[in-house]
Write a structure and sequence with these properties.
Layout (H helix, E strand, L loop, with lengths): L2 H8 L13 E12 L2 E9 L10 E2 L2 E3 L7 H13 L6 E6 L3 E3 L3 E10 L12 E8 H6 L3 E7 L23 E10 L2 E4 H20 L1
Parallel strand pairs: 1-7
Antiparallel strand pairs: 1-2, 1-4, 2-3, 2-8, 5-7, 6-7, 9-10, 10-11
GO molecular function: coenzyme A diphosphatase activity; metal ion binding
InterPro entries: CoAse (IPR045121), NUDIX_hydrolase-like_dom_sf (IPR015797), NUDIX_hydrolase_dom (IPR000086)
Protein name: 8-oxo-dGTP pyrophosphatase MutT (NUDIX family)
């Protein structure tokens, strides 16, 4: 096959993320609720029965499966399953920026409104408790930021002889920012804090424009 044929076959191709098919894909919903006339954000505390990250604070969400038409459908489905509410109780679901992280995952976050808070009945196998925080708290308080160093540690059979520098190769040490919010004894951090911070930045940007 010559270069002309190769280019002809690739014309019009829509690019994606390299290795997209091998990435684990999840979707979450950042739920807005009204509490005594004020907008709050609802959070879950993961059940201590969960194998992964028990006791951590998160948004409703989970893995995208074959029954989900798209990430939005997954975020809504997982929210109904975890909070025990109907799909009709969730309005105005809007996509936020998605995250591709170093653990081979893509997380698709959405923001939406839960209109019937009184109907929430958390699934005890997944949710230990739910709580809300006023949106105003996050608008008025910046998260604390801490650096985490990611070290490179090749396996024992790594072929050093195939790279320039061998065992003395100068690996780049990366840093990531971990964000923390503390409210009423609760600690919100990790991907949840990153999604939350992104959302708050969008809200603040709209406030400046209005």
């Amino acid at each position: 096959m010559d270069s002309t044929n190769i280019i002809a076959k690739l014309k019009g191709r829509i690019p994606s993320i390299l290795g997209h098919d091998q990435l684990r894909k999840s979707a979450v919903l950042l739920p807005l609720v009204e509490v005594e006339g004020e907008t709050h954000i609802l959070f879950e505390v993961r059940s201590m029965k969960m194998r992964s990250q028990p006791g951590d604070i998160c948004f409703p969400g989970g893995r995208i499966d074959k029954t989900d038409a798209d990430p939005r459908h997954c975020a809504i489905r997982e929210t109904t399953e975890e909070l025990g509410i109907s799909e009709a109780s969730i309005d105005d679901v809007i996509p936020l920026d998605y995250i591709v992280n170093d653990l081979s995952r893509i997380i698709y976050p959405f923001v939406g409104r839960i209109t019937k808070v009184e109907q929430i009945m958390p699934n005890p196998s997944e949710v230990g408790e739910v709580f809300t925080v006023p949106l105003s708290f996050f608008l008025e308080n910046e998260p604390k930021c801490y650096k985490v160093n990611l070290q490179v540690s090749p396996e024992t059979d790594f072929p050093y002889h195939l790279i320039v520098g061998g065992e003395d190769y100068n690996w780049r040490v990366r840093q990531i920012d971990e964000l923390f919010y503390e409210y009423d004894g609760k600690v919100i951090w990790g991907l949840t804090a990153k999604i939350l911070t992104h959302f708050i930045q969008l809200v603040k940007a709209e406030q400046k424009l209005s």
